[in-house]
Amino acid sequence: MQNTAKQETKTADLLQLGETAVIHSLSTTELSVKLLQMGCLPGKQITYVRSTLGGNPLYLRIDNQFFALRREEAAQIAVHHDSSL
Amino acid sequence: MQPTSNILYLAGNPNSGKTSVFNHLTGLHQKVGNFSGVTVEKKSGTTQMPNGVTWNVVDLPGAYSLHPTSAEEYIVLQTLLHPAALSDKHTILYIADATNLERHLLFCTQLICLGYPLVIGLTMTDMEAAKQLRLNTAKLSELLGVPVFSINGRTGQGLETVKQALCTAPVMPAPAFLPNVAGINAQLIQKVCTTFKITNQYGAALLLQHVERLPFLAPEEQKQLLELVKVHQFKSLHTQVADTMQRFDKIVPLIAQITTPANAQPHNLSQKLDQWITNPVFGLVFFCFLLFAIFQAIFSFATYPMDWIEQFFAATQSFIHANLPNGFFTSLLADGLVAGLGGIVMFVPQIAILFLLIGILEETGYMARAVYLSDNLMRRFGLNGRSLISLFSGMACAVPAVMATRTITNSKERLLTIMVTPLISCSARIPVYTILIALLIPANRHVGMFNAQGLMMMALYITGVVAALAVAAVMKRFINSHELSFLALELPPYRLPHWKNLLLGAWQKVKVFIAEAGKIILIISFLLWGLSNFGPGSKMQEAENRVKAQFTQPTDTALLEAKIAEARLENSWVGHLGKIIEPAISPIGFDWKIGIALLTSFAAREVFVGTMATIYSVGGSDEHGLRSQMRAEVNPNTGKPVFSTAGTLSLLVFYIFAMQCMSTLAVVKRETNSWKWALIQLAYMTILAYGCSFLVFRLFQ
């Protein structure tokens, strides 16, 4: 689960509106256990679809599912850009 | 409990259609929601098997995994890891959504590893998304080693086949999905197994991982486990992640084997709708519009049945008085029992309508969006987006609303929500608001295009909401919690509500109200009946005789009876109590008569109106007469009208804030597991009510 990829990674809360990336890994916290269980898995595509007026929580698409995650929840997810995209 | 062999557990993720299946199996009525985690209690029922044997069905709360992150998931873990359950090994019917198998299989494979005999019921197989997957259920069954059936949660189709299979031959436990427990030293697992005399290694791992939250462990056992955790430097979280990841590493390729990847964009309609509904600006406008519409619906739809109910009970009371001899039992029956029942049934229409509407919001999937939209605001006040559902429900009745806080995982956020929910104006306040507003504002006055009375009513509701948020903002500073606060909410595709589920759901809430609030309202009604029909010594009789002596001439009997009732009430125990508390409430503009009404309001706030009618000698339910009587009332101490602008406003403010509901206190006590929070709530609400009434009274005087 460590960050070993050569590609540049960032956390999902830093995605730009409309940006799509691939989930690289999750941190080891209680929050990540929850996120994993809900189907937020490495290798899946994640898209920042929209947000509320306050900019929090985020409306995210993860493969074909949709989630509302707070920024600090999204920060548990490391993402990178897939070169094939 | 039935013989142990005849128990079937229903398990599955939230939104899997599990509760619908439960409804079909048992016919026992229960809620199905689209909002993650509507099922909060472990519910059970019975079902008739094709061979005539009755099975017990236990509906476990929806869970994503055996590694719990919510109270509901803890219930599931505690139930299934309990030594008795592990040794009995009842069969599990696992409900999984065919359109989202990957996630749904995680929990399923954990249950298999725990050694439970398991059968999978696939729902949503009729959905377009599922059809495109071309799911090979036979292959799934072969790979997992468990029977797999397609069922329809809405129609119940396919359930008979499942039942037939269940009672034909006992289901055998499948081979463990993961051969070894992920990330844990085999020696450590072996130690736990020998110490606790269990054979299941996965069960041993779960004991280690969640030792702190397993109430069935004896203190001694817990100590032993914690010692092992310490000695082996066991990292619970790491092993939970490892367990989850290893499972997915196997599940993902497994699903690739049994499905054809679909190209179509799923839930297109949902996404188009969400462009508007969860739009940062329009979404809020829509949310406010919905709130307003619900508010309107409660008032306009509920008025008629409420009037009928009120008339029916008033007529019943008159009938009893007219046809039974005057005396103790007649009075107890008519003024204690019937009046108390009336006070309960009165609110059923409003509560039913509101929960029906909330049910629609949940079933369609809108509620999850509302939680998403409001989470940021709620957090500023120490609440959670999920608090919204309780605050909504509080408009009907605080009792089911407090119970609805169970979906809030963080105990601090949940406690805060419980503490402020009774500040939301509930249906019992409406009759009080109505009569007091009528005293304050003429019916035909308008502000712009709006009726002034309606605006005032709105203002009172908004005051309650603002107060709830403000109190939460203050109180959050005094409650410490190191627990994680999270939202992590699934936004399920929009669905059409299922009418049967909606009606059953609303009925459930009404039953909660009748069972929880009703019995207390009834008890207090009897108590108040006693306190207002009996007085110290013979004072009540003397007062009655005095009134009779004044009316020696033949006169209007209705007037005479009303005057007698007034004199008797004044000299009853409750009348004395009213006078005792008068010095305390006179600074906020109330006299002893209002004092009596405040006391009787403890049964249910709307009793205020009835008490006022008795106190002002207005027979029956003549509201017009009551209003003019109240308007004319002069405080003998000050010589000023009691229901002046200042006095009326003060009373209105008092009714917004005061905790005048025994039922709510009782349910808060139960949900927080201590009198402490119920008493703190009573104290702060009383101080708030008194303080604000005092300010308002002084300001307008």
Dominant shape of chain A: globular
CATH domain topology of chain A: SH3 type barrels
Number of helices of chain B: 31
Number of domains of chain A: 1
**What is the alpha-carbon Rg of chain A in Å?**
12 Å
Largest interface: A-B, 32 and 43 residues
What does this structure look like?
The complex is a heterodimer of chains A (85) and B (701). The longest helix of chain A has 8 residues, at 30-37. In chain A, 46% of the residues are buried. Chain A is built from 2 helices and 6 strands, in the order ββαβββαβ. In chain A, β3 and β4 form a beta hairpin. Chain A has a single domain (9-80), classed as Roll (SH3 type barrels). With 85 residues, chain A is mostly beta strands. Chain A is 14% helix and 36% strand. With 701 residues, chain B is mostly helical. In chain B, 62% of the residues lie in helices and 6% in strands. Chain B is built from 31 helices and 9 strands. In chain B, the strands form 2 sheets. Chain B has a 6-stranded mixed beta sheet. In chain B, α15 runs antiparallel to α22 and α22 (499-533) crosses α30 (662-672). The longest helix of chain B is centred in the middle third of the chain and has 42 residues, at 282-323. Chain B is elongated and about 95 Å long. Chain B starts with 6 loop residues before the first strand and ends with a helix. Chain A binds chain B through residues 1, 26, 28-39, 41, 43, 50-54, 56-57, 59, 64-70, 73, and chain B through 64-65, 67, 69, 100, 102-103, 106-107, 237-238, 240-241, 244-245, 248, 252, 266-267, 270, 274, 278-281, 283-284, 368, 371-373, 375-377, 385, 484, 486-492. β5 (65-69) of chain A pairs antiparallel with β9 of chain B, so a sheet runs across the interface.
Short summary:
The complex is a heterodimer of chains A (85) and B (701). Chain A is mainly beta and 85 residues long. Chain A has helices at 30-37, 71-74; strands spanning 9-11, 20-26, 45-51, 58-62, 65-69, 77-80.
